């Protein structure tokens, strides 16, 4: 799928808490449970449940996506070699496995984010032979013998930031930061193909990367700065 296609944005989340007339915070959750819960207790509960869900998703990706991708009838893993960030990585891969799954859950390269998992948001963008691809829509078996670069592969020999990463920080691009690795990978691909893009070139090239925090202007300025 072309990286230049306009994609839908992510959905925003809502809140289930509100303040009582007496000034004491009660959540709808605590009302349902029939006992008051302090704001501190509620926040602690949300954080700990979020951490648990994130950990389960890392260990068992099926639990995070709700998909039984490892249980397809007749699916057999095959050991293949991938060229990732300049290294040869040997990994067992299912026939229908996407590159995003392989990178995150088998090679531990969690800088590549998974959001829509259907080629709409750009969060999973990686470079394949220096071209930006949505790794959630790319089968791992199809990229054997290709050069794959993830966000982890951009750092310099001494751990220094890539110029695009540096510019993103200086222009205060990342807000929550979830879309940022994908934005950076798309920007790097653009600048490799066109080191001096116009503002219009950047807008078109980055149109496949969504940002629910609305940092588009910051990212645009950062790329202009590098260009
Ligand atoms: S996760 Fe949204 S495009 Fe891949
Ligand atoms: S989604 Fe939060 S910075 Fe883009």
The CATH topology of the largest domain: Ubiquitin-like (UB roll)
Bound molecules: FE2/S2 (inorganic) cluster
CATH class of the largest domain: Alpha Beta
Count of the separate structural domains: 2
Distance between the termini: 26 Å
Strand share of the residues? 5-15%
Count every beta strand, where a strand is a DSSP E run of 2 or more residues. Answer: 7
As a percent range, the share of helical residues equals 25-40%
Largest sheet: 5 strands, mixed
Please give the radius of gyration in angstroms: 20 Å
Mean pLDDT: 80
- Report low-confidence residues grouped into runs of 5 or more: 4-34, 42-68
What is the CATH superfamily label of the largest domain? Beta-grasp domain
Q: Give, in spatial order, the strands making up the sheet with the most strands.
A: 4-3-7-5-6
Tertiary shape: globular
Number of helices: 8
SSE order: EEHHHEEHEEEHHHH
What is the CATH architecture descriptor of the largest domain?
A: Roll
Structural class: alpha+beta
Give a short overview.
The protein is an alpha+beta fold and 227 residues long. The protein folds into two domains: 20-64; 78-227, Ubiquitin-like (UB roll).
Please describe what this structure looks like:
The chain is α+β, with helices and mostly antiparallel strands. It folds into 2 domains: 20-64; 78-227, Ubiquitin-like (UB roll) (Roll). It is 35% helix and 14% strand. It has helices spanning 28-33, 39-59, 61-65, 99-106, 163-170, 180-193, 199-205, 216-226; strands spanning 17-19, 25-27, 78-84, 87-93, 125-128, 131-134, 147-149. Strand 1 and strand 2 form a beta hairpin. Helix 5 packs across helix 8 (216-226). The two termini are 26 Å apart. Residues 4-34 and 42-68 have low confidence and may be disordered. One FE2/S2 (inorganic) cluster binds at residues 114-117, 119-124, 134, 136. One FE2/S2 (inorganic) cluster is lined by residues 114-117, 119-124, 134, 136.
């Amino acid at each position: 799928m072309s990286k230049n296609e306009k994609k839908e944005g992510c959905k925003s989340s809502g809140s289930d808490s509100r303040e009582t007339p007496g000034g004491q915070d009660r959540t709808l959750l605590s009302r349902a449970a029939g006992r008051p819960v302090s704001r501190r207790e509620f926040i602690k509960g949300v954080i700990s449940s979020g951490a648990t869900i994130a950990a389960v998703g890392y260990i068992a990706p099926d639990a995070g996506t709700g998909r039984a991708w490892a249980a397809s009838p007749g699916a057999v893993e095959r050991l293949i070699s991938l060229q990732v960030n300049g290294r040869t990585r040997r990994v067992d891969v299912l026939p229908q496995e996407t590159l995003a799954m392989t990178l995150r859950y088998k090679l531990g390269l969690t800088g590549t984010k998974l959001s829509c998992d259907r080629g709409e948001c750009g969060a999973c963008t990686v470079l394949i032979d220096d071209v930006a691809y949505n790794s959630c829509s790319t089968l791992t078996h199809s990229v054997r013998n290709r050069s794959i670069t993830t966000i982890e592969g951009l750092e310099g020999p001494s751990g220094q930031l890539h110029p695009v990463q540096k510019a993103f920080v200086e222009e205060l691009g990342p807000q929550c930061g979830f879309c940022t690795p994908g934005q950076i990978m798309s920007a790097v691909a653009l600048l490799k193909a066109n080191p001096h893009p116009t503002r219009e070139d950047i807008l078109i090239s980055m149109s496949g990367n969504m940002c629910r925090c609305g940092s588009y202007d910051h990212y645009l300025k950062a790329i202009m700065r590098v260009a």
